[in-house]
Amino acid sequence: MSVRMTQITALVLQSIAAGFRYGFDVMEACQLPSGTVYPALRRLEKAGLLKSRWEDAASAHAHGRPRRRTYALTDEGWRVLPEAQSRLQEIRRLLGDFPPVETREA
Amino acid sequence: MALPHLWIRVTSALVPRSDRGDWIEEWDAELAATGGGMRNAWGSLGDAWYLRTEGWTMDAMWRELKAAVKGHLRKPFFTALAGVTLAIGIGANTAIFSVVDSVLINPLPFPDASRLVSYNHEAPGLGVKVPVIPHSQAMYLHYLENARAIQSFAVFGDDAVNLITDGEPRQLSASQVTQEYFRVLGVQPFLGRAFVEGEDRPGAEPVAILGYPLWEETFGEDPSVVGSVVEMDGVRRRVVGVMPQGFQFSDEDLWIPLEIDTGAPDTGSLQYIGIARLADGATIETANAEMEDLLLRFAEANPDELGPEIMEQTGMAADVKPLKDVFVQDARQALWVLLGTVGFVLLIACANVANLFLVRAESRQREQALRAALGARRGDVLRQYLTESVTLALGGGLLGLGLAVFGVRGLLALAPTSLPGILKIGIDGSVLAFTALISVAAGLAFGVFPVFAYGRRDISNALKEGGRSSTTGRETHRARSTLAVVQIALALMLLVGSGLMLRSFVALRNVDPGFEPAGLMTFRFALPAAEYDDPARILAFHRELSDRLAAVPGVQRVGMISGLPLTESKTAGPMEPVEKPFPEGELGPIVERRSITPGYLEAMQIPILQGRALTWEDQADQFRGIVISENLARAFWPDESAVGRRIRGQGNEFSWEVVGVAGDVRFDDVEDEPLTVAYFPVLRGTPEEPGGSLSMDVVVRVPGDPLGSIPQAREALRAVDPRLPMINPRTVEAVVKESMASTSFTVLLLGIAAGIALLLGTVGIYGVISFIVSRRTQEIGVRMALGAPAQTVLRSVVGQGLVLTALGLAVGLAGAWALSRALASLLYGVSATDPLTFGGTALLLGLVALAATWVPARRASRVDPVEALRAE
């Protein structure tokens, strides 16, 4: 199943590629509300561009918090990433600037 | 639990069950990890909605829609029954809403209409029933000069002019307006120009502006009429403009300037209605406060017109309000009641259709169980049901819209003529939106019903049984019984409401207006003041017309009055007995003043209780006698005879001798107590200011059909003055009927609504009981096979129906009692909680429900046990 690459899905995909793993982190990175980010995550996952898994519960509890769901790009996701990025640039060119996604320091 | 987490749980209801656990955990964890508050939690709704609707592609929905429509077409009887039921409910609502929309909701058809205000006074102390207390010329000039909260201000008064076209005299209704009038309303003539400064001052050339319909019909849409001179009432007026199509303010045909002499304005006669446009930044409150202040200043400066005692006694105060309020005074309450009423009808219709759907859902249990076994979720079933019910409701709505188009036409044909033409009633965009909205709402309402009724049932059980259940599930039973109870309750509430209105109507019909309307024909004439400027000539006209009418074969009595009872014409003022005048500043009773000719009281059959009626001799010697009403005589001389006493207009020098006392007459409204009246001769001026009534209502008593005398009456009028039109000839009974029109209109509509409710409610309870019986056929068969007598079966089924009926009646009576207050102000001569009406309608509905129960019960008691056990 394919997904239509919109500004939002492209932003979400790009921010996960940049290293944001959790839903709320992606939200912060894209500066979009949760009601927008989550449906995009669902769509990308369903299209096979993202995969999600639960963190290890023990290590999460060791940090004193519940386990969180993490998102990562699939091989297919990495394959379409350049396309998404060029799409973003095109949109940026057409619509002007919007919040850039920074690269998270390793 | 913290609010965000609680919210997650609420929205999780939308998430498909298989994903729900993980979904909650993910959101909880994110919120916990980031310390996010509600700001971040809101989005869970969007996420949940996305997951719920994922599969809802346009394609799938389209397929579902087609399946639903096909399903409806496969069951034409069911579909027709449900569709027509809904169409009645939705159509009634659409029709009433279109009236509510244009009368109460839509703004007046003028630019920036929200800034338009009625700029007048109120005077609660006067106790007269008028929408506003208008201005005198002097007051108008005072406000015009000093008010700052309004950017433009105009006053107008009603007038009538006679126009001769093609040799036929015709009376036209004219508005006399000051020159700012068109600027206030924000509309300019589309041909020619509006009035200009100075045209409303004495000595200016007489001009007129035509309304579009008059220009179209009488002047053949000829643009060159602008600039030409037309004779009206003996005055040659130059036409300076034509107003655009659709422009009308108070149902007038044309506009002429209201002449006001700024040097010596008329005082004391408050007869010009004010309209204004608020200035930028001003509000109704600030305009009102300023006007209040200006009114006090005016009263101080003009103690002759508005002395402090008068101000106090009448409670006269500024009254600035939205202009629209003036038009919808009386209609407001009745309309809301009607809208509520048809809302009830729709609810009953929905209950009926919900019941039909329940029946259908029952027979589809196997289908649904199969779908569930194949992996359909509860949400899918819900969606299927809702698609079916909403498509059905939209179909019903479409049909209802058609009904409403005719309904509105019927409504307008029946509606009291007092519905002002300025409120353009019809079906427009917002009405369509309303219809669509209630259709969808109705569809959702009865669509979810079966899902809740069946939703909890064990699917595997349903599959096994395949509908072959000996008794239906408890929930469906309860659902269906609830529907029956609700229907009966709603129907009773409507019946009580219409019963109360019907009793008011009967009470109104039985009121003695103080005269005998049967056998009377009436019409009006208006003499042009320019020609009838001599009292002797006026009197001669009245006398000659009376004689000619009396000479018509068959005519028994002829009389004239300046303003027939129960019509809108109104002249009144305070009066006092000469021998004991009211102290300065105290206001005497407000007395209706009418001029009559000899024969009027006799023609109307108003009894003379003391003294005598007026004669032509009283008329000739214009300063002699008057007749007063009994209640006025009692007010001034409670224990003595009024005949021979003298009364006068309060504060006036000139007085009149009471020569007779006549019976009381209801003047204002049939439902209002009779007003105090003074009957003057035709010539009722004072020696200083002689004058007479130029416009009179003629009453002619004839045996047989009163309308049959119209042609001869017209001939008689023409013989006296060929240029005078006969205005509004009709029976006096029609006048009385019209004064009750708004009540009878409400009665009619409530009656129709209650009739529909009764019908639908009866069908409803019949459907419920017969379905219960059909479901119990097997059980009844077993019982009868075991020896239960038919009587017991009958009693058991009827008993079941009666319990439902009794419950419904109890709820309905309580509901009607709670709602009766809304009706109270519309009632006359009957209490809003009238026990007879409550009891009678409950009894009627109980009997109808009993009959609806009886038929299926009889069928049950005749069940053949063998057949029953074999059944299904």
Distance linking N and C termini of chain A: 32 Å
Helix content of chain A: 55-70%
Low-confidence stretches of chain B: 465-471
Total E-strand runs of chain B: 21
Please identify the structural class of chain B as seen in this structure.
alpha+beta
The largest chain-to-chain contact, stated as pair and per-chain residue counts, equals: A-B, 18 and 22 residues
Strand % of chain A is: 5-15%
Identify low-pLDDT runs of chain A.
102-106
Strand order of the largest sheet of chain A: 1-2
Provide the CATH topology of chain A. Answer: Arc Repressor Mutant, subunit A
Summed over residues and divided by their number, the pLDDT of chain A gives a mean of 83
Give the name of the CATH architecture of chain A.
Answer: Orthogonal Bundle
Q: Please state the overall shape of chain A, judged from the principal axes of the Cα atoms.
A: globular
Number of helices of chain A: 5
How would you characterize the overall build of this protein?
The complex is a heterodimer of chains A (106) and B (872). With 106 residues, chain A is mostly helical. Chain A has one domain: Arc Repressor Mutant, subunit A, CATH 1.10.10. Chain A is globular, with a radius of gyration of 14 Å. Chain B is α+β, with helices and mostly antiparallel strands and 872 residues long. Chain B folds into five domains: 52 residues; 193 residues, no CATH class; 182 residues, no CATH class; 168 residues, no CATH class; 194 residues, no CATH class. Chain B is 52% helix and 15% strand. In chain B, the strands form three sheets. In chain B, strands 1, 2, 3, 4, 5, 6, 7, 8, 9 and 10 form a ten-stranded mixed β-sheet that branches. Chain B has a six-stranded mixed beta barrel with strand order 13-14-19-16-18-17. A four-stranded antiparallel β-sheet of chain B has the order 12-20-11-21. In chain B, a hairpin with a 2-residue loop joins strand 6 and strand 7. In chain B, helix 13 runs parallel beside helix 16 and helix 19 runs antiparallel to helix 23. The longest helix of chain B is centred in the last third of the chain and has 45 residues. Chain B starts with a helix and ends with a helix. At the A-B interface, helix 2 and helix 3 of A face helix 2 and helix 4 of B.
